């Protein structure tokens, strides 16, 4: 197939887009990408070419708040002249929840859109934003094919033992179970593991996706065995502003004793906790590392690393051992100190840091022969590239 693909990742306060060129059987090639951020407050737009050079930047003045619909109209206006003369093959969308039924991306028609909308109660903060552009594009360009790619899909092959909570059967059957997220990132990493090292492709690997959101995925033979996020994207590791795993008793206490409403408690656990909540300073790892001498910042960093190391232990147990640890996403790819501290805390698993290679970006950051002993690696993720590949594959199969 020959033509262009647009990939959209619509979140609660931003819409990210990428434009890819498809030609023949080769993987789609990124042409440019950008985002409208700060929706509902101070909106900003920027777009970059694939090599990182800036193409355009805009800021909207105070009081001129953009909502999601405004941002889509703006993006349509920005993209239209740039797409002229080239065939647009279709759009790929990142959709957080595919429920139990979807272990692979789907083409979206009206029935599928209704099915995905019915999953909104499972991810009320994300799913409606993911689906709004699909509906808007369907209304304006009814003939344009659209593909939904799910963050949950990669984990659907996990065992029932892994996916079920110890809750009454009726609650499980109502849909309360571990779904897991960041699946597009994990799937991309799984797809490149054979090029990273053959032992990782067929072995027991833990991937640490450490971005603003963060989770771990245990993989065997490139398939998801277990993951730290569960029913929601709150579970598992502490994150930039999310608390990670929490005794559910804390939630009752917040509601009953501290008199928070469910919405206030939710906002606290999603937006005011994690690195930001503990440090009182920032959710940005760069700023925290620069101020690591401050006691509250140091404590936030220590909790973050300790909890990652503990969960790595838990996933190593699920895998029955460890052959490789892979760091990815903003912090995993760029914060050498965080990688060094996590690897040091995982010495008991046989990992031994190679400080020089860690400082220069790896890709292997541990000592010894990875064919003979556990190793740790840096592998950049590419969720947009994965979306483009899926979209092209599905359009090709139509
Ligand atoms: P998202 O989950 O929004 O896609 P990213 O994967 O971009 O987020 O990760 C964002 C995180 O990566 C932030 O905490 C940011 O501070 C961190 N980060 C980005 N670059 C660096 C860097 N050079 N050093 C340390 N941390 C970095």
Description:
This protein is an alpha/beta fold. It folds into 2 domains: about 1-150, ATPase, nucleotide binding domain (Nucleotidyltransferase, domain 5), CATH 3.30.420.40; about 195-380, Nucleotidyltransferase, domain 5 (2-Layer Sandwich). Helix content is about 40%, strand content about 20%. The chain has 16 helices and 13 strands. A hairpin with a 5-residue loop joins strand 2 and strand 3. Helix 6 (about 185-195) crosses helix 16. The N and C termini lie close together (about 10 Å). The mean pLDDT is about 95. Bound molecules: adenosine-5'-diphosphate. Adenosine-5'-diphosphate binds near residues 213, 240, 329, 330 and 334.
How far is the first residue's CA from the last residue's CA?
Answer: 12 Å
CA radius of gyration is 21 Å
The class by helix and strand makeup works out as alpha/beta
The name of the CATH topology of the largest domain is Nucleotidyltransferase, domain 5
| Low-pLDDT segments | none
List the helices and strands and how they pair.
Layout lengths: L1 E9 L4 E9 L5 E9 L6 E6 L4 E6 L8 H16 L4 E8 L10 E2 L2 H8 L9 H14 L5 E5 L9 H4 L5 H5 L9 H14 L1 H5 L1 E7 L3 E7 L2 E5 L20 H9 L5 H10 L2 H6 L5 H6 L4 H25 L4 E5 H6 L1 H10 L9 H5 L15 E4 L4 H15 L1
Parallel strand pairs: 1-6, 6-8, 9-12, 12-13
Antiparallel strand pairs: 1-2, 2-3, 3-4, 4-5, 7-8, 9-10, 10-11
Provide the descriptors you would attach to this structure in a database record:
single chain, 21% strand, globular, alpha/beta, 16 helices, Nucleotidyltransferase, domain 5, binds adenosine-5'-diphosphate, 5-stranded mixed beta sheet, 398 residues
């Amino acid at each position: 197939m020959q033509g262009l693909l647009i990939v959209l990742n619509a979140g609660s306060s931003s819409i990210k887009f990428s434009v890819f060129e498809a030609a023949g059987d080769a993987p789609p090639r990124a042409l440019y990408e950008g985002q409208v951020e700060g929706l509902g407050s101070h909106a900003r737009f920027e777009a970059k070419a694939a090599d990182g050079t800036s193409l355009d930047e805009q800021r909207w003045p105070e009081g001129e708040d953009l909502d999601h619909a405004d941002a889509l109209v703006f993006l349509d206006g920005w993209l239209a002249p740039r797409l002229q003369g080239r065939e647009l093959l279709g759009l790929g969308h990142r959709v957080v929840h595919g429920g139990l039924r979807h272990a692979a991306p789907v083409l979206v028609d009206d029935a599928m859109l209704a099915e995905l909308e019915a999953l909104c109660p499972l991810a009320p903060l994300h799913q409606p934003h993911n689906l709004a552009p699909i509906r808007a594009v369907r209304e304006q360009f009814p003939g344009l094919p659209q593909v939904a790619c799910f963050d949950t899909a990669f984990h659907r092959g996990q065992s029932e033992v892994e996916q079920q909570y110890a809750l009454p059967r009726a609650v499980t059957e109502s849909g309360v179970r571990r779904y897991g997220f960041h699946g597009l990132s994990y799937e991309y990493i799984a797809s490149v593991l054979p090029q990273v090292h053959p032992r990782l492709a067929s072995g027991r690997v833990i991937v640490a996706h450490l971005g603003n959101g963060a989770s771990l995925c245990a993989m065997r033979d490139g398939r998801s065995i277990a993951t730290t996020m569960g029913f929601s994207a709150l579970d598992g590791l502490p994150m930039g502003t999310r608390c990670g795993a929490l005794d559910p008793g804390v939630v009752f206490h917040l509601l009953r004793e501290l008199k928070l409403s469910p919405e206030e408690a939710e906002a606290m656990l999603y937006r005011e906790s994690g690195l930001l909540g503990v440090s009182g300073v920032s959710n940005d790892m760069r700023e925290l590392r620069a101020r690591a001498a401050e006691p509250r910042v140091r404590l936030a960093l220590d909790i973050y690393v300790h909890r990652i190391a503990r969960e790595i232990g838990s996933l190593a147990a699920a895998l029955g051992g460890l052959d490789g640890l892979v760091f990815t996403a903003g912090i995993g790819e760029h914060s050498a100190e965080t990688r060094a501290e996590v690897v040091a805390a995982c010495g008991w698993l046989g990992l031994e840091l190679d400080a020089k290679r860690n400082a220069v970006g790896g890709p292997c950051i541990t000592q010894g022969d990875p064919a003979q002993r556990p190793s740790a690696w840096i592998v950049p993720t590419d969720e947009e590239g994965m979306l483009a590949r899926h979209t092209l594959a599905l359009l090709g199969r139509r």
